[in-house]
Amino acid sequence: MITLPEKLASMTPYDPCEDVYQIKLDANESYFSLPEELRDAIAASIDTIDFNRYPDPTVADVRRLAGREFRIAPGNIVVGNGSDELISLIMNTFAPRGGKVMVLSPDFSMYQFYAEVAELEVVNMLKDGEFMLTEQQVIDRAKAEKPDILIFSNPCNPGGQGFDHGEAVRICMALEDTLVVVDEAYMDFWDQSILDCSTALENVLVMKTLSKAFGCAAMRCGFIIGYKDLIDQLNKTRSPYNINTMTQLAACIVLEDTSWQKEQCKQLIARKEELEAACQKLAEKYGVFTVLPTHTNFAVLRTEKCTEIFEELKKRSICVRCFPKFQMLRITTGSEQENAILLTELEDICADMQA
Fold first, then answer.
1. Where is the Aminotransferase class I/classII large domain (predicted)?
2. Neighbouring-strand partners of residue 149
3. Cys staple from 99: which of 115, 136, 148, 309, with CB 3.0 to 4.6 Å?
């Protein structure tokens, strides 16, 4: 019998919700699917595929159109099978054996997960009660710890807050000996991206995705953008056929004209703001939770009763995300109708708790 590595004993696999609910607001997905004309175009494109041939290993067409969308040269872009592949690629490419990765907690759990798979030491810097840190706090801790990689989402999942453009750039520039990875998966919902200087900073990688504001979570397509030498190193370790042909064709169709996405994004932001405002009214009325403002497509509720509320919502066929360790609920905005149902049930739960 083989001896399994010790690292496996302490690892907890990612646990996505697999149950079926009437309203699913746990995964930060868009409530929009693709417009019908794009779905039809993707369906028609399948007939053009030579299924006996490997996909384009350079992902050239996707990088060209992504470059146009992000205003970045295609040579500064790596395409990944979702952000997960890219996080793993970064950890295995840029950290030496036994190296160190610094994360800002709470943050996307897969940063630590893939660092541990690569057998890297993980330094967790805890945020304050409102899930905030100052740029100077991050700089000082990173200079003291000297990690090989600092990685954080901006704005943050699950906290919802983030560093503005100037703060993020100053963190990157102050840590010139550390690879700084800024995951902008939710930056479509804010206007503080550092893409404008990402290719000029020699120690910075920025991550983008089609899963959130583009409503293409099923496609599994993400991007790393950065300094050309860093991109060249990633291409040394990237699998040669990591993006299948169907995803490449679909991504090109999605990126060819993104005016539809800009309109959907406006509506997502509007629904989230309405959700936050309605939750704030419930917070003031019942005192069961507090609402933290976010720059994302989800609302954040802080409460000692997060697990109770989570379980009660599940009984009513509504799934949100619960983080008991941080006494918080993360609620992705749904459609106007979904949010209305959620709020009705949430008020009923709060009223019962108050009674």
1. 22-344
2. 101, 179
3. 148
